Structure to design on (400 residues):
């Protein structure tokens, strides 16, 4: 049944204590490859936030429909199609509305379809039985959390570039260990509030 | 990805298990690598699922490669993968409900595991069905190997057990950090380091 959580605490929990990336390991692939560059990180973070908010809401509605029809086992396929469709639509809308935004965001949108954070948030939403508003807030907060962590990491990587690192550890190795330290810092938030 | 594709079965095996290992050489599919490795049983089941899905998706993509229009091939590949993941999910729910519950959303997330898509795109798209199947299976095994190593460390040090059986002496104090997210990152970082160094570091 729908858990009783105030949207406000859910919002903060999804950014800090239950950070989609640092606590649930979602969206790692693009996280590691894109975080080399601060500007791209910012663009991708923004795109992920928008797409997460929209798709989590839409997938909530779709899930109700599937449940009513008794087709819940099809949800993976349907979620993926919804995500691909939403991304495609967003791409077209942004293209119409703002050329400059399209230029900066355009290349990231196709990448997002296969970003596991998007599908992951929809699946968490299903497992935890969130209501519609909880889902939207959860999606938005998770997006912001992802954005925050990719910005932090790419800023750290700028410094790391100049650091003397053993040859085998260069690149992905040291990046993953850095993410580990960030995750440790975020665990510090978990005393503040815990929302499942 | 290697540019020259050697399609002898032995070469594929060596390539996918070691010199082009999905995890520590290509850095693919690490979301689930980190999330499921806190218990060895979960890891074994999860990686078995990934191996089967990779193998059969590669087989299907290879069989259908002439029929799929190039423009929509990504979404078709995703749907093929999703189809096999649903089968794995239903089988787990029916026969291993406890593990299915532990793995939670990560079974569904096999769909977005980049290894599967990567193999479909890089290998199955341009090779015969049998070889593609073998390629998918061995890629899955390469992934399985690294994850099992991680899970052994995390479960042994985090709980003092292996597959749920007590291994460490009773006086052993579990390292709680090993069960928490950061240790997964640290271990993966160390494994990447070890892997690349043993490889000679020329690709690092």
């Amino acid at each position: 049944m729908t858990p009783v959580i105030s949207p406000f605490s859910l919002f903060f929990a999804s950014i800090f204590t239950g950070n989609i990336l640092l606590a649930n390991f979602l969206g790692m692939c693009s996280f590691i490859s894109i975080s080399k560059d601060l500007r791209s990180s910012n663009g991708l973070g923004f795109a992920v936030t928008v797409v997460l908010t929209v798709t989590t809401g839409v997938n909530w509605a779709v899930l109700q429909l599937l449940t009513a029809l008794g087709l819940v086992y099809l949800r993976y396929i349907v979620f993926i199609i919804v995500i691909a469709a939403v991304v495609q639509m967003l791409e077209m809308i942004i293209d119409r509305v703002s050329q400059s935004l399209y230029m900066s965001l355009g290349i990231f949108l196709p990448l997002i379809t296969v970003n596991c954070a998007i599908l992951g948030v929809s699946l968490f939403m299903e497992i935890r039985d969130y209501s519609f508003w909880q889902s939207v807030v959860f999606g938005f907060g998770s997006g912001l959390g992802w954005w925050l962590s990719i910005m932090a990491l790419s800023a750290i990587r700028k410094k790391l570039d100049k650091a003397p690192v053993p040859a085998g550890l260069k690149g992905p190795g040291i990046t993953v260990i850095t993410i580990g330290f960030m995750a440790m810092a975020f665990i510090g938030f978990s005393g503040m509030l815990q929302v499942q | 990805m290697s540019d020259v594709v050697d399609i002898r079965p032995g070469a594929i095996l060596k390539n996918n298990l070691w010199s082009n290992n999905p995890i520590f050489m290509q850095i693919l599919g690490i979301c689930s690598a980190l999330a499921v490795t806190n218990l060895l049983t979960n890891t074994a089941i999860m990686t078995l699922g990934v191996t089967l899905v990779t193998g059969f998706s590669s087989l299907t993509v290879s069989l259908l490669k002439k029929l799929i229009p190039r423009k929509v091939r990504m979404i078709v590949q995703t749907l093929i993968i999703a189809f096999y993941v649903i089968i794995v999910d239903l089988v787990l729910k029916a026969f291993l409900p406890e593990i299915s519950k532990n793995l939670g959303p990560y079974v569904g997330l096999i769909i977005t595991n980049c290894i599967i898509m990567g193999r479909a795109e890089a290998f199955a798209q341009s090779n015969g069905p049998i070889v593609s199947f073998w390629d998918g299976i061995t890629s899955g095994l390469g992934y399985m190997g690294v994850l099992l190593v991680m899970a052994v460390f995390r479960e042994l040090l985090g709980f003092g057990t292996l597959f749920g059986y007590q291994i460490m002496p009773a006086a052993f104090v579990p390292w709680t950090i090993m069960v928490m997210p950061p240790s997964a990152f640290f271990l993966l970082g160390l494994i990447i380091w070890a892997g690349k160094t043993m490889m000679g570091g020329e690709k690092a």
Remarks:
- Chain A is about 75% helix and 0% strand.
- The CA atoms of residues 60 and 126 of chain A lie 8 Å apart.
- The first helix of chain A runs from residue 7 to 17.
- Chain A touches chain B through 47 residues (CB under 8 Å).
